[in-house]
Amino acid sequence: MGCQTGDPQTMAQVADIGADSNDADNDSGNKALRVGVIGVGVMGCNHARVLAELPAVELVAVADPDSKQADFVGRALGCKTVPDVASLLALGIDAVSIAAPTHLHREIALACIGAGVHVMVEKPIASTVEEGREIIVAARRAGVQLMVGHVERFNPAVQAIKDAIRNEEILSVAITRVGPFPPRMSNVGVVIDLAVHDIDLISWFTGSAIVEVQPQLSSAKAEREDIALLQFRTASGVLAHINTNWLTPFKARTVHVATKRKYVIGDLLTRQVTECFGFQPDGSYSMRHLSVGHAEPLRAELLAFLKCVRQGDRPAVTGEEGVASLEIAMRCLNGGGDVAAARMGALRVAG
């Protein structure tokens, strides 16, 4: 759901949440975590919406230089609004969700970490791998939690696929993520906007790092790439490919995973997951539909972040994992090749 000031349906939905947003403590008596959101565009508005309705959470304020949008969200959710990061930190918060433009992630994350605030930052973690690593080091030194917002991992269909292939010998992964051109997109192409989701999923499904990249990119209508056919090989030998574009008139999000014993097909939009198994010499096989949950992915993601803040658990998506996905995405944009060899070359240059 988008969150724009001119959308009456959105205004009603957010206002309904705001009516109950002051119930910060749950029945367990946990002290409410004081949280803030930085950036209340489409994604940040949804972060604020979800945080406002969570138990044992107080949405203290949202920060955005766009005062009209910030005031709309603040009024709807019953929280304060501030124009910048410093003003938000001055209110005293425990954790923050950063949904600002990517080029601001480093500056904002470092400011929050420097104030001892736990950070969740939307994907990609930063504009460059180097900036991402800087954020990781700062969080480690400050002793605060850092989680990267790869929300697709929390899609119930994705989790059903992950469960279905657990302990299986994976042979290949094929992911399609296509749709029409997004009017709001201007500073990145499909690799950073869309494919980075699936780069993360490939590594997560296989439990193995991507070591070889073979990209094919094209710019049919946009200044940046709007078509990408990406092939990969993981360290464990799994072959994978991603088909993504902004040219398809409808959205499609599908995952196909082949293992030695089964073939799993998932539709991430309809949340239907099918498993083919019991392959016979005559070509026959059995098929079943798998149980898939109904949880909102963003809510599950934010709950996971807040749990790691409260309990000190390992974040569901670590900074290192966020940087690894960004590094592969950048490798796709820079011509591909052997990732390990490129990394060693970069280290030699730096040395």
Descriptive keywords:
single chain, 351 residues, alpha/beta, Dihydrodipicolinate Reductase, domain 2, 2 domains, six-stranded parallel beta sheet
Structural class: alpha/beta
Question: Which spans have pLDDT < 50 for at least 5 consecutive residues?
Answer: 5-29
- Number of structurally distinct domains: 2
The whole-number mean of residue pLDDT values reads 90
* CATH architecture classification of the largest domain: 3-Layer(aba) Sandwich
The oligomeric state of the chains shown is single chain
Number of helices: 11
CATH topology of the largest domain: Rossmann fold
* Counted beta strands: 15
Major sheet: arrangement of strands: 14-13-12-11-7-10-9-8-15
CATH secondary-structure class of the largest domain = Alpha Beta
User: What is the approximate shape?
Assistant: globular
Q: What can be said about the biggest beta sheet?
A: 9 strands, mixed
Helix content: 25-40%
CATH H-level superfamily of the largest domain: NAD(P)-binding Rossmann-like Domain
